[in-house]
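Internal tracking record. Fields below are filled automatically when a chain is submitted to the structure queue. Please do not edit lines marked as system-generated. If the sequence contains nonstandard residues, flag them in the REMARKS field before resubmitting.
Queue: standard
Priority: normal
Entity type: single polypeptide chain
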Amino acid sequence: MVRIKGIPRGSAFITLLLSYLAVFLLPLALGSILYTKTINIMTDNANRANLAMLEQLRQVMDSKLRDVEMMSQQIALNPKLQWLMNNAETAESADAYKFVEFVSDHMSRYRNVSDLIQGYYVYFGANDTVLLPTAKTTADVLYERLYLPVGTSFHTWRSELLGSPHYQDYFPVTYETPSGTLDTITYVQTLPLGEPSEIRGALVILLDMNQVRSMLSKIESANQSSVYILDRGDRVIAGKNSESLRWDKILQEVSASGVPYEYEDNGVDMMLSYTVSEHNGWKYVHVMPKQVYLERVNSLRNWMITLLLICLAGGGAAISFWLHRNYAPLQAVVRALQKEKPAQTGQPANEYEFIRETIRMTMNEERELRKILSRQTPVIRASFLSRFIRGHVDASRMTEESLQFMDIRLVSEYFAVILIDIADFSRFSADQSERQWALVRFIISNIAGDLIRERQWGYAVELDQRRIALLVNFYAERRAEAPQELDSIAARLKQVIEERFKTYMTVAIGDVHEGLDRVCESYFEALSALDYKMFRGHGAIIRYREIADADRHYYYPIETEIQLINFTKSGDVENVDKLIGNLFHAHFSQRRITPELGRSLFNNMVSTLWKIINPMDPLYREVFGAGFDPLRELSVCPTVEEMKLKIRDWFLDLCQYLNASRSSHGRQLAERIAAYIERHYGDDMLSLTTIAEHFGLTPQYLSAFYKKQTGMNLTDYLTRVRIDEAKKLMQDKKLTFTQIANKVGYANDIGFIRVFKKYEGTTPGKYRESL
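SYSTEM-GENERATED OUTPUT FOLLOWS
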């Protein structure tokens, strides 16, 4: 090891060695922790997977059992079944048909409710009658020929059904059937439903045990495990080896410790998980040998030990190599610094201390130099940004170093410019001196800078006494949010300045552009938008994208003007309002025109208004007053919306004035039309056309007039009169629907029935039954 003049030998070498050892040993410690965590995670994942499969099984079973229980409720609550149950003891041979009718009309419809259902029947205890989905039989025939419970006598079978009440009870039962042995989960529901003290029969549904076992086997084969289903009384409903589950012995321990639960079964460590159905209280239990998933853990442990040995061998070699490689350049750096720097007063403790002291001295010198430059940085930065946003800077010659020198940082190539024009701060300060203007600009600039840097980046620049520019630089990953961000910055800045400092201003927003050389485009777009403040009024937020596509013409043809004149003269308020709304929507919502063209459109509409009211002179003064001057009133409106409201109100006021003089005659005519319909509703030739001919009007005008006067379509009123009269006639049971249809003006009963159902929501037959 070489000794460096004035520095103790080997101190940096020992420091490097300890550092490498620490770096080497840290991953080993973390690896050990990771190994322990991995084992826990694998165990937890196995338990979660088992529980997830049980939950899926539970959900499937709950869904199928809900279908079964819903079917049970529908059969048990059937009124005809209730009648049969109540009259089973007194039923005569003539009533046997009612049992057959119930089978045909009701029992057969449930055969396809669920693929889990193998069969079902209703047993009447009073007369030992059994109703199957396809036939009526007796209890002994059902027992001996169709479903013979294995190991159960007929008397026992019958007493189990009728001896005690059952409410949605399930039992595993094996039957001998003509087609072979049938394993089932038998569902029993005592009848009548809700009367456990008076048992008259039972509803029995046979569920296919093989389907349940098939679902269990899919889980069992995946994990070399066993799955069991237990009912509310902890009886095993299904499971490949129900004897092996010692549930009664471990129930209390499982309930106390929770799942997963570990226990020993004949010398084998087992893991037990279970879930309980909230629907019926069944338990779904999964039991798996612990060794099944510990095989993966053991394999991981072997790999970890192997990797640890490889890391120890490789790490030792790597430490030796990098120790030598990194210490040699350190010696060379110290020698170079000793040659360039004058002798230091104190002796450094080691090579690192020597380098640190040298760098400190260099940084102090640089810091002093930066202090001198920093005093001029704000002025230099403001001048540069002002020229930059105006396009007076050659973007190709801008470098990272020059920007850092001016303390300017740019985060991407996406920029936009916001211009702020200060309109009035008299409520903030009555002093209008230059000092007060500078204070207002300072406040706005600082608040704007803070709002920009909350989510993006940018700077505020004072351009002149009233105007401030905000250069907004967007992060590349947030480029899609740029328009919304600009709107948010402008809205929040305007709100804060107006509410807290009582200063009012107009904000103009340019579009987002990519590239340093295109910043000036956004600036000039903002300038163009700012020109619209005379049209929008002071205090507005104007976006260039809203005015960029402004049309250079407006659409107000002579046909539209004639329509507006005719609607107004006829007092058609609805169409006048709609037509004016469409004009404004077409020019200021669907597309945009310039403010100058907008004023021209308003002036033309005022001209239309004069064409209507000039012949009324001097009566129009009753509507608008003696000094009515619409052009002057429009000229003082600061916004388009106010101009629109002015024009709309003038036309609607004129419509209402004209309607007032005609309203009495209109009501009388509407009453005459209604009376004519009430006298002739039985004429099947009566229609909108015939009524219009009778009163000397066109059908279109008659329809619009009647709707305007009464709020109801004329054809709807005619139909309602006919339907109301038909409902009165239906009280006479001797009249057929054809006769009633002819009496109320329908040529046949088909059209009458269709119209009646449309207006009343039910057929004439059902309506007559409800009378």
